[in-house]
Design a protein that fits this description.
Number of strands: 18
Shape: globular
Order of helices and strands: EEHHEEEHEHEEEHEHEEEEHEHEEHEH
Distance between the termini: 44 Å
Number of helices: 10
Strand content: 15-25%
Helix content: 25-40%
């Protein structure tokens, strides 16, 4: 068994190193028997932060390998999981049987219902896809997209999101009045953008001077959509409200870090934030200098690529609007990679970004990452016969 860099089905694996005997034995007991060595959970967490996968060599060298990875569990620990879209393990392989317990089950865990709703809403409005230009008011366009797609979505069965959802504080008291007039619990959602997660600031929009309802001020525990501790803002905060008989209460609250108040693309934390800053720089350079349109798609936390460590998908768009080149980006912990002597710059598949300092000027690893992304995109332009002359920008560039 080997630690490998992420790869696409059918591509050759780029090995980092072979697993040690004690690591293989510990993984076998963990997966087959549900018994963990004292150090195993921390080791799996390191693999997850470095975005490394495990290649099981139970099949012949002529066959594609089964793959495993470290999955984050709802209990904030890590467990070994199989990639079911890759080849199956050979008969007799200890990883060919069903896992020993639910915590390292093969299926992607179902996210909490409010997280699931947030991901559906963001994906339908395409807030997770960044184009290199916007209109005169890109923020209004994003809110308009949220409202438009809410026409075909439901909070829960029988409750249209368009009727029971708000994205602006001016409309929140009206929603609260509607909920409070119900004879039985009726649910709605409110989406807010805030710079910090302060309970007083989060509750303030629910109050109105002419309100005829009572607000239950108890704020439930705040969770993040990506399951980690929230980093610095800004945030999108989604509230699940319930009202009946003159009272409105907050049932659930989910916070999602975003890039900025004008660009509501969701992020997992500081590592994603730094990677996106560099990718946006690449996007601007290609539009201004080469007239090339590149889109950046953030993988959402309910998607298979996300739990395997794929942070973004970069696409070069042709004249017909279709992607002519696409590759994945994985944002990894630079300090851990350096300590373990892992070279994240090798390989021709997904591109790794070794993220260290997340504020201030670009670091050498940021510059190297930017160069590799630019080279991949410009090499494709050259090989496809595209023009090498810089083109003048014709649209406003997103910031």
């Amino acid at each position: 068994m080997r630690l490998v860099l992420a790869n696409h089905p059918g591509d050759a694996c780029v090995a980092v190193r072979a697993l040690r005997v004690r690591e293989i034995e510990a993984l076998t007991h963990h997966f087959r028997d549900g018994v963990d060595a004292p150090w195993l959970s921390e080791w799996l967490a390191r693999l997850a932060r470095m975005r490394l996968w495990i290649d099981c060599e139970c099949r012949s060298m002529r066959e594609a390998s089964p793959m495993l990875f470290a999955r984050r569990t709802p209990e904030a620990t890590y467990a070994l999981a199989r990639m079911l879209d890759r080849p199956a393990h050979a008969r007799g392989c200890p990883f060919g049987v069903a896992p020993a317990s639910v915590r390292n089950a093969d299926e992607l865990p179902e996210p909490p219902r409010l997280v699931h709703l947030m991901c559906r809403w963001f994906a339908a409005a395409r807030l997770n896809v960044l184009f290199p230009y916007t209109g005169d008011d890109g923020l209004s366009a994003q809110y308009a997209a949220l409202r438009e797609v809410s026409r075909s979505m439901e909070v829960w069965p029988g409750q249209p999101l368009y009727d029971f959802g708000r994205t602006h504080p001016h409309g929140l008291p009206e929603l609260c009045r509607k909920l409070s007039r119900s004879a039985h619990d009726t649910q709605g959602v409110y989406l807010s953008v805030t710079s910090r997660l302060d309970s007083g600031e989060l509750l303030e929009p629910m109050y109105s001077t002419d309100a005829h309802y009572q607000v239950d001020e108890e704020l439930p525990p705040l969770r993040t959509a990506c399951g980690s501790e929230p980093d610095r803002g800004p945030f999108v905060v989604l509230f699940l409200l319930a009202g009946a008989k003159g009272v409105v209460r907050i049932r659930e609250v989910v916070a999602q870090p975003i890039h900025s108040r004008r660009l509501l693309v969701p992020l997992d934390g500081v590592v994603d934030r730094r990677t996106l800053e560099v990718l946006l720089d690449v996007q601007r350079r290609l539009l201004v200098g080469w007239g090339r349109v590149v889109t950046i798609r953030k993988t959402l936390c309910n998607a298979l690529p996300h739990e395997r460590g794929v942070s973004f998908q970069v696409q070069s768009v042709g004249p017909n609007g279709r992607a002519v080149l696409s590759f994945d980006v994985l944002a990894a912990d630079a300090e851990m990679a350096l300590a373990d002597r892992v070279d994240l710059e090798q390989g021709a598949g997904p591109i790794y970004h070794a993220v260290g300092a997340t504020e201030g000027p670009l670091t050498p690893t940021d510059v190297s990452f930017r160069s590799r992304v630019l080279s991949r995109l410009l090499d494709h332009v050259a090989h496809s016969g595209g023009s090498q002359r810089p083109a003048a920008p014709t649209r406003a560039i997103a910031s």
